[in-house]
Amino acid sequence: xxxxxxxxxxxxxxxxxxxxxxxxxxxxxxxxxxxxxxxxxxxxxxxxxxxxxxxxxxxxxxxxxxxxxxxxxxxxxxxxxxxxxxxxxxxxxxxxxxxxxxxxxxxxxxxxxxxxxxxxxxxxxxxxxxxxxxxxxxx
Length: 139
What we know:
- The protein is mostly helical.
- The protein has one domain.
- 79% of the residues lie in helices and 0% in strands.
- Helix 2 packs across helix 3 (61-89), helix 2 (37-57) runs parallel beside helix 4 and helix 3 runs antiparallel to helix 4.
- The longest helix is centred in the last third of the chain and has 40 residues, at 99-138.
């Protein structure tokens, strides 16, 4: 599916959401949400993958893989940034590097990739059936 937005709008959207995400991940989670931290990580990365795939990848597997890698590395980078910010600022604005958060990020990315792959396969099968039907009607 191709969205009717130009590339500059896409870049602006991604930049705004990237900045908001970095800020959101750098501040401490409100206490009411701390018990579902891992689920929030998985949900965020699932939705981020969906957002970027709809904007850029469509049905292109190479772009889907690049988005997956970018988001995975982004998640690791944010975890290191949280750890580093505590040392740099000498104030604990967030927790520490948490490998479980990285695992949750990966779970969200894998979950989206499964949904995306099922969609792509079903779309391929549907298109193939339509072509076959059109060929049989023209004969």
